[in-house]
Amino acid sequence: MSAHDHAGDDHAHGGAAHGSLKGYLIGFFLSVILTAIPFWMVMTGAIDNKQATAVIVMAFAVVQIVVHMIFFLHMNPASEGGWSMLALIFTVVLVVIVLSGSLWVMYHLNANMMPGLHEMQQMP
Amino acid sequence: MASTAITADTAAVFHLEEEHAHAEGGSTMLGFWLYLMSDCLIFAMLFAAFGVLGGNYAAGPAPKDLFDLGLVAVNTTMLLLSSITYGFAMLTMDKGRVGATQGWLAVTMLFGLAFLSIELSEFAHMIHEGATPQRSAFLSSFFTLVGTHGLHVTFGIVWMVTLMVQVARHGLIEANRRRLMCLSMFWHFLDVVWIGVFTFVYLMGTLR
Question: Phi then psi for A97, rounded to 5 degrees?
C-alpha cells in the first residue's frame, strides 16, 4: 500500500507546484525577445520576401507558445499524473486538423470554384 | 461451459476494491485544464474562420489600412507584463503574504484594464472609419475573434476583483489558493491565445 499512498501524496502536492521566480523571469525574457523580433521584422520589413517573413513569424509564435506552456502554465509530462499532457496533446491534434483542414479545403474551393471577374468576361 | 468455469475461477474485478478518499478540490486543477482545452477549441474554430475569410475585403479596408502595429505592440506588452505580475502574485501567495499578493493582483488587473482600453479604443477608431463588423467577411471574423479574446480578458478581470474581495475577507485559505491557481491558468492561457492573435491576425494580416 505504500506505493499507493505515495501516489496520493504526489497528487495532493502536484497542484501546488508552480514555478520559481527564476522560472517566471526566464519565461518573461524569452517571451519579450520572441515577441519583439517578429514585430521588428514586420514593421521594418527586415526581410524583403513576405513568404519567408511569414514563415519565420509563425515559427516564433510556436516557440513562444511552448515557452508560455512550460514557464507560465507549468506544463510537464508528470502533472496531474500525465492527464493534462494527454488532454493537451488531444487538443493540439484537433486544432491542427481543424486549422489545416479548413484552410486547405477552402483554399482549393476558392481556387477551383470562383472565376474572377476578368475570366467571366472572357467566357462566351 | 469452459468459459463459465474460467469466470467462476478467476472472478475478474474491474472496479477498485476500495474507494480512496480525495481531498476537496483535488481534481479541480485537472478539471479546469480540461475547460481551458475546450476553450482552446472555441478559439481554434474562430482562428479557422478568420483564416478562411480573412482575405475577403469586399472592396473594403484591408488590414494594412486599419492596423497600427505600434499600438498592437504596446497592447502585447501590457498582456505580457500582466502575465509576469500574476506570476509574482502566485509566488507571494506561496509565501502566504496576503498584502503582497493583493498588491500584485491589483497591478495585474491594471495591466489587464490597460490592455482592454487600448483594444476598445482601437475598435472605436476602426468603427469610426467605417470598418464595422458588417463591412466585410474579413472584418466580421476579425471582430469575432479579437472580441471573443477581449471578452475573456474582461471576465478574467471580473474574476480577479472577486478573488481580491474573497482574499480580503477570508485570507489565503486553501479554497482561495485553489481559485487563484485556476485564475492563474486562465490568465496565462489568454496570453497564449493572444500570441496566436497578434501573429496570425495582426502581423500576417499586415504582410498579406
Answer: -65, -45
CA distances from A46 to A40, A64, B111 (A): 8, 20, 30
Is residue A12 less than 8 Å (CB to CB) from chain B? yes
Q: Which three cell numbers stand for residue B50?
A: 478568420
Chain A residues in contact with B34 (beta carbon < 8 A): 87
Q: Are B139 and B176 in contact (CB under 8 A)?
A: no
Q: Regarding the domain delimited by B25-207, which CATH topology (the fold level of the hierarchy) does it fall under?
A: Four Helix Bundle (Hemerythrin (Met), subunit A) (1.20.120)
Chain A positions in Cβ-Cβ contact with residue B47 (cut-off 8 Å): 99
Examine the pLDDT at B3 and tell me if it is beyond 70. Answer: no
Q: Does A31 touch chain B (CB under 8 A)?
A: yes
Provide the ipTM. 0.84
Which residues of chain A are within 8 Å of residue B83 when distances are taken between CB atoms?
28, 31, 68, 72
Q: How far apart are CA A78 and CA A83, in angstroms?
A: 8
Query: For a pLDDT cut of 70, what percent of chain A falls above it?
Result: 77
Q: Break chain B into its structural domains and give their ranges.
A: 25-207
Interface check B94 vs A, CB under 8 A:
yes
